Each structure stands twice: as C-alpha cells, then as structure tokens.
Amino acid sequence: MEIFVGYGNYTIALATMIGIYSIMALGLNIQWGLTGLFNLGIAGFFAVGAYASAILTTSETPKHIGGFDLPVVLAWPLAMIAAAFIAWAVARICIRLRADYLAIATIGIGEILRLIFKNEQWATGGTRGISNISRPFEQLPGIWAPLAFLGVVLILAMVAYWLAERGRTSPWGRVVQAIRDNEPAARAAGKNVETFRIQGFVIGSAFMGLAGALTAHYFKFVGPEATDPLQVTFLVWVMLIVGGNGSNRGAMLGAAVIWTMWSASELFSSRLSGDWAHRAPFVRLFLVGLILQIMLQYFPDGLMPRQRQITARLPRKPTIDQPQSSHILPPF
Amino acid sequence: MDQLLVFINAYLVPGIVSGSIYALGAIGLTLLFGVLRFTHFAHGDVMTAGAYFALTAIGLFGLHPVLALPIAMVCTSALCLCINHFFYRPLMRRPSLVLTISSFGIALMIRASIQLLYGVESHYYVRGIQRSTDFLGTFRIVDRHIWIVCCAIVLMVALHLLLTYTRLGKAMRAVSDSPELARLTGISTLAIVKATWVIGGSLAAVAGVFLGWDGFIQANMGWDLLLPMSAAAILGGLGRPYGAMVGGLVIGLAEELSSYPWFGGDALLSPGYKTGVAFTIMVAMLIWRPNGLFGGRVQ
Q1: What pLDDT sits at residue A332?
Q2: Does residue B135 belong to any structural domain of this protein?
Q3: Least buried of A123, A315, B266, B268, by fewest C-beta within 10 Å?
Q4: Contact state of A282 with B41 under an 8 Å Cβ cutoff
C-alpha cells in the first residue's frame, strides 16, 4: 500500500511539473514558433511571475515587502501582467533589431532580474528568498491536496493551450506567422511588424510569468538560486524543439517527453552510489543537449510538426495555366 | 595622492585587465560572426574549456600559466574544430538562428562535461600570495596583471598583422565582407571557416586562462562572461575585430569604474550590479547606434 502512495505522489508531482512546463513551452512557441522571436531570458520572466505572486499573496513580514494577502485568483493574473510589462519594456527597445541582438538582450535582462532579486533584500528577501508561500488546496487531507493543485495546473495548461491554439489560427496568428516567414511581404501588405512582434513577445512572456507563479506556489518557496535559471531556459527550448517548433500540441508533447525523461533519470541516478550520484545530473544535462543537437540535425520539425493548413487550404493552381500566362504581356 | 593610488590600484588596473580579457573573447565572437553570420553562444564556455585545459597542463607538468597558454590554445582550437565539424557544419544551410540555438545547447554540453570531469568546486592555477612589482616607488601591480595585459597586446598586434598582411587574413576579411564574392574569387569558404575557429578558439582559450589566473576557475565562469563579451562586440560593431578590442576595454573599464566612489563616500553603483553595467551600455548602444561605435558589417 505504502509503495502505491509513493508512486501516486510521484506521478502527481510529475504531472504537475509537466503542466507548468507546458505553459512555458506554449509561451515560447508563441514567441519563437509563431512570431520568430528568440528569447533566452525565459527564466527571467518566470522569476518575475514567481516573485510577483509570492509578494502579493504572503502576509506581512519584516523579511521582504508584502502584506497584500491577495488570493491567488487575483495574484496570478497580476503576476502575468508583471512579466508582460517587463517583456513589453524589453521588446520596445530590442524588437526591431536582429534576432541575435534580441537573444543577447534577453540573456541580459534575465541576468539583471536575477541580480535585482538577489541584491534588493528589502523587497525580495535577498538570497534567502521568500518562503511560506501558500499553496491552493493545501488544507485538503492526504493525497487530495496535491491532486487538487494538479487539477488547477492542468486546467490552466488546457486554457493556455486553447488560447495559444485560438491565437495561432486567428487572423492575428496568420499575421505573426507571415512576419516570421517573410517580413518584407508582411510589411508590404500593410502590417505593422513591430506592433505584432511586441504583442507576440508580451503574450508569450505572460505565459512564462504564470508558470513562474504556479511554481512558486507549488514549491511554496522562491529564491534567486532556487532553480538554475539557465537550466529552466534550456529545458523549455529543448521541449519546444523536440515537440515541434510552431505546433502548440508539439510544445505540450515536448514538455511531457522531456520532463518525464529528466525526472525519471533523477529517479535512476538517486540509486547510484557515492561519486556517481553527484555526477549523474551533468551526464543528464549533456544528454539533453545531445538530444537537442540530434533533433536540430535530423528531425528539424520535431515529433509533431506544425500543421501547414494555411497553405493546404488554398485551391491548387492548375499547372496548365503557367505556360499560357508567360505569353500574356504585362499590363504596362 | 592616496586617493589616486587607490583609484589606480583597485579600479583602473583591474578594469584594464578585465577589459583585455573581454577584448580577447569579443574578438573571437566578432570574427565568427563576420564569417559565419551567427552569434556563437558557446564562446564563453569555450573559454572555460581553455581554462580547464590549462589547469590540466599545469597540474600535469607544473608549468607557469603563461607556458600553459600554447597547450590550452591548441586543445581549444581542436575542440572548436570538432564542434564545428559535428554540430555546426550540418546546420550551415539552415537559417542562422538554428545555429544560434545549437550553440546555446553546445554551451551547456561543454559546461556539463567540465562539471562531470572536474566537479563544481573552484580551482586555482597558483596558490598563495602573488608577487608584485613596484612602479615609481608607489604603484604596486601584481605580476600576473602585467603578464595578462602584455600577452593580450602581443596577441592583438599579431592578429592585426595576420589580418592585414597575410593571404589568410585577407581572405578572412573578404569572406566577412561578402561570402559570395569571396567564393567567386576562388577562396575556399570551408578553409576560412576552419581558420576562424582556430583563431577564435585560441583567443578564447587565452582569455579563459587569464580569467582563471586572475580569479579562480569554475565551470560557469565563461557563461557569465558571455554578456560583457557580446556587449563589447556590439559596442565595436559586430564583425569588426578592432572594434571588439576597443569595446572590450571600454566595457572592462566601465564595469570597474562604475563602483568607484565618484561622488562622496559611497560607491556610485553597488558592486553587486557590476554585470548590469555591460548590459546597460549594450542596450544604450542598441537604441542609439545599433551598428556599433565604428559601424558594424551587418545591420
């Protein structure tokens, strides 16, 4: 009986993290998959969401600013807005530059945010971070508490998926994909490229902020070094590339596959003894890197390639037209 | 006088030293960008690899860090060529951002390998108090700082001579200016790409060894330098090696001087935010002069 509870708890924890990472992968898919924006500061937006929600929901304490005691229903949307606001500020400056510059700038913003969270002790508790964050439904007995939280995460992940999918198939989604594929053409069609890019970046970052808020409440703690920021960013990227860049379902599948592997290898490595137990995490990171390289080289579309319905729906031109048209003189 | 002494010993000299290190790294970044048209996100970790190669050499043969430089340069160049052959070359025909993603993955793979082989703790090339030399009876400059700055100057002059007077250097500049035209004139792009990896990798190795010599050697030291190095490369204009030299020096000095108490007793900027300086300069550049101080090759 004991062992079943253990496995049950493990499965619930696994599913909860998959839900949270799916939301981030969906956010990155909006930024990179649809809009073609390179974001290497995922962990930064994630942390903004986490800290915002933590500060808003905790009660008065001398360790950091707080005492707002807001319910999560209010704090989570505010956390998304906080992440979106930071993203908007970054995007305003960097969005019209080369994609490489945006990538470097997002690394920079992630680093600055980490420094702020670490150094501004009055606001964020410094290196000790913020603890005693409440988790919704934690008062429920036994296994029901994590199960109920898992339910919340999964519902939010489904809502995020629905929103991302609606966005992708909407006119807005077609415009951002057109910008990604051929910017001059989209510009010539009268689309304001900068505005659409900023929108894509901000919406994706809001998703990352929500994931951060969920993680803070799930772990009941947030700190500047709680998770290796680079590792979070890297994992989300691998999830999207493995799942299928540009496909929302692929992003979720990638999150499930990569997190299961990541987490299962931890289960395996904890059985190892002595020196190798310390080294196993690095082997794991190396292997995930290798998976990324293999996917990039051999399966660039990922496990679930994006649906190319926009072009597929167009009626096919009869090929016989083409030689004829070449004889017609141009109209000028 | 006392004030001036503190300024020079604790702010100006460290600024020049870290500026030289940034410059060496930024030159590699900018050369690679010129030839391959992508930002090599693993450049910082290539530096780390160089530092660890030197650490191994010093541990095995008990060399002086400067004598370990050639070994680190050769090993790092070989590493770069391998990475290029197995991971970047198959992606050459794809959009350059795919290469950027790949290099981000490579950065973590290099770091993971180092952590696997050497662990996460800090290492040192030389232990104990360092010898220092007196100048004009008042300035005390640590010997390694003199070594670092002199070696950096020698390498930069060598690079200048290579780029200006040799066939290889001219071919590299030609490919950087216009890959198509260079290919039409019969320059082998593949050979140039390899040469660029060797030069960029060697300079990164030197930068890594100096960085480790000046402080300590740790697995994530290179990644932390990616931001100031990119800032230096952007400041000088991507694709311009001379710009990167100036950019590196400017960023290094700005970082150190920003925490000097210019007004009254407090530091102008808390040293905890030192890394932010490079970023602020970079963002300011991106807003007002996105092509860099001297005009970059690519917009």
Answers
A1: 40
A2: no
A3: A315
A4: no
Residue A316 has pLDDT above 70, yes or no: no
**Do B279 and A112 lie within an 8 Å CB cutoff?**
yes
Task: Tell me the nearest-neighbour CA distance from B199 into chain A, angstroms.
Answer: 22
| Cβ-defined contact of B102 to A109 (cutoff 8 Å) | no
Q: How far away is chain A from the Cα of B125, in angstroms, using its nearest Cα?
A: 23
Instruction: Read off the CATH number of the domain in which B226 is found.
Output: 1.10.3470
Determine the Cα–Cα distance for residues B278 and B259; give it in Å rounded to an integer: 13
Of B33, B112, B286, the CB nearest to A282: B112
Average pLDDT, chain A: 86
Is there a domain that residue A166 lies in?
Answer: yes
Residue A270: Cβ-neighbour burial (10 angstroms; 0-12, 13-18, 19+): exposed
Chain A neighbors of B118, CB-CB under 8 A: none
Q: Is B109 at the interface with chain A, CB within 8 A?
A: yes
Domain extent for B261: 2-111+142-288
From the centroid of its chain, how far is CA A143?
28
Q: B116 in a domain, yes or no?
A: no
Q: Is B288 on the interface with A (CB under 8 A)?
A: no
A20-41: pLDDT as tens digits: 999 999 999 999 999 999 999 9
State the pLDDT at residue A307.
Answer: 64
Decide if A293 and B106 are in contact by the 8 Å CB cutoff.
yes
- 8 Å CB contact between A224 and A125: no
Is position A248 within any domain? no
Q: Looking at chain A, which residue has its C-alpha nearest residue B39?
A: A100
Task: Identify the three-state secondary structure at position A53.
Answer: helix
Q: What is the CA radius of gyration of chain B?
A: 19
Question: Which residue would you say has higher pLDDT here, A170 or A96?
Answer: A170
Among candidates A107, A109, A234 on the partner chain, residue whose Cβ is nearest the Cβ of B226: A107
Contacts of A283 in chain B (CB under 8 A): 112, 116
The one-letter amino acid code at B266 reads D
Q: What is the ipTM of this complex?
A: 0.89
pLDDT at A1: 63
Residues A145-155 as b or e (16 or more Cβ within 10 Å = b):
bbbbbbbbbee
Mean pLDDT of B90-105: 91
Answer whether residue B130 is part of any domain. Answer: no
Instruction: Tell me what pLDDT residue B296 has.
Output: 57
Please check whether residue B216 lies inside any domain of the structure.
yes
Tell me if residue B42 falls in helix, strand or coil: coil
Number of compact structural domains in chain A: 1
Nearest to B108 among A99, A101, A285 (CB): A285
**pLDDT one-digit tens code per residue, A35-88:** 999 999 999 999 999 999 999 998 877 777 777 788 888 999 999 999 999 999
What's the number of domains chain B is made of? 1
Taking CA–CA distances from B228, the nearest residue in chain A reads A108
C-alpha distance from residue B172 to each of B83, B175, B186, B238, B267 (Å):
20, 5, 13, 15, 44
Enumerate residues 6+ apart whose C-beta is below 8 A from B254.
B15, B277, B278, B281
Say if A165 falls within a structural domain: yes
For chain A, first and last CA: distance in Å?
A: 84
Tell me whether residue A37 is in a domain: yes
Selected residue with higher pLDDT from B155 and A230: B155
Q: Which domain holds residue A198?
A: 9-226
Q: Which of B105, B226, B227 sits opposite A292 (nearest CB)?
A: B105
- Chain B residues 158-187 within an 8 A CB cutoff of chain A: none
